[in-house]
């Protein structure tokens, strides 16, 4: 399968300001992106995706007829476009508002204004999602790895599942919170647990503690994927609960791939 490069990308830019759209388009062209279509609102973005498609969407948060989140959810709820990366460019610093994008499967969040290095990293993270590649394991057949995916956000589960499936992990079961995960752990065997932190009924910390201190599950590696800052007080001692690795939302798939190889091939 041919892998896309940055110069191959067809990007849909959603930006209501003519000045801002010219600035962002110029920066994209400077990164060697060859094709950039520009629209100004949610309706135009949906129509463009439906009519012409795109390899990825770059959008601001606030639009005249909605927000970038409406576009992101439109993409993720459409099976034909669900794997299309979405990059948010915004000056918004509200943790709650940004978390909605993280939960919905945003590929990258760039500040406004952003530096070329931010854009380069966002484009590379998006390419990693597009150019999926199976991982090569020494001690497992990747197709046999049994994964329990735990997240209360359906969109987040869908996004993480697509990333894992692109790496060859197809034996996945899903749980919407820690309590649901416990019922699946009692009746099934797993080689890996990928869990969110913030969940109702039982959060990721409580689930990790149960897994690590239960004799029948103590061996299972745990990756925690969270929109919490990894330097926040909440996360400071999370690895004491037995979590093997922490990963940001949004995450870079190459980072997840490296974690999977380390955990599944070494049991560390």
Q: What this model shows, in words?
A:
The protein is an alpha/beta fold. It has 2 domains: 6-130, Response regulator (Rossmann fold); 142-266, Response regulator (Rossmann fold), CATH 3.40.50.2300. 41% of the residues lie in helices and 19% in strands. It contains 10 helices and 12 strands. It has helices at 18-30, 42-52, 68-76, 95-104, 116-130, 154-166, 178-187, 204-213, 233-236, 253-266; strands at 10-14, 35-39, 56-59, 62-63, 66-67, 86-90, 108-111, 146-150, 171-175, 192-195, 222-226, 245-248. The strands form 3 sheets. It has a 5-stranded parallel beta sheet with strand order 2-1-3-6-7, sandwiched between helices. β10 (192-195), α8 (204-213) and β11 form a beta-alpha-beta unit. α7 (178-187) packs parallel to α8 (204-213). The longest helix is centred in the middle third of the chain and has 15 residues, at 116-130. The two termini are 33 Å apart.
Brief synopsis:
Helix content is 41%, strand content 19%.
Q: State the order of secondary-structure elements, H for helix, E for strand.
A: EHEHEEEHEHEHEHEHEHEHEH
Q: Report helical residue fraction.
A: 40-55%
- Calculate the terminal CA-CA distance, rounded to whole Å: 33 Å
C-alpha geometry: globular
Q: How does CATH name the architecture of the largest domain?
A: 3-Layer(aba) Sandwich
Q: In terms of structural class, how would the helical and strand content be classed? A: alpha/beta
Total number of strands: 12
pLDDT < 50 stretches: none
Tally of individual helices? 10
Q: Characterize the largest beta sheet: strand count, sense, and whether it forms a barrel.
A: 5 strands, parallel
Radius of gyration: 19 Å
Compute the number of structural domains.
2
Q: What is the strand content?
A: 15-25%
Q: Which fold name is given in CATH as the topology of the largest domain?
A: Rossmann fold
Nearest-integer average pLDDT: 91
